[in-house]
Amino acid sequence: MPDNSRDNDSVTLVQHLARWISGALIALGLFGFVPGLTTHVSGLSWAGRGSTASLFDLIQVSVLHNVVHLAVGAGALATARRPPAARRLLAAGGLLYSGLAVYGWALNRGWASWNFLPFNEAGSWLHLLLALVLVMSAAGAPGLSYTELRDHRRGTGS
What we know:
mainly alpha
C-alpha cells in the first residue's frame, strides 16, 4: 500500500506562511459575524458606511468586508499547495490590502466619495499591517523546503 502522507520537510516556508495567514484571515472574516467579538451586530449592513457593527469595538465591518477577508483567506489556503502560487497570492493580497488602506484613509479624509466598504482609521491601519505581513511573507520567504534550507545553511546542499 503506497504511503500517501506528505513529508512535512518538503513543505516550503512560503507554503506554511500562506497556511497561517489564511487561517488568520478566515478567522478575522468569521469574527466579524460573531456577537460579542463584534459589537452592534444588529447594525451589520451588507456594504457601505452605514454599518454600525465593529469588530472588537474598534474596526468598522460589514458583510462584504468580512467576505473579502474570508475570500482572501480561502484563496491563500487553496494556493498554499504550490510555492509559486502561494507566493503570488500573498503578493497580490498585499497589494489588495495596501490599496484598501489607502482607500480607507482617502475616504476618512474626504478625498474620495464612492464607498462600498465601511472604513475607519483603525481599519485602515489593520489593512496596512496585513499588507505589510503579506508582502513581506511573499518577498522574504525562501522557496526552499525545510530540509533544503537546513542543508543550505550547513553548507551541505547543492
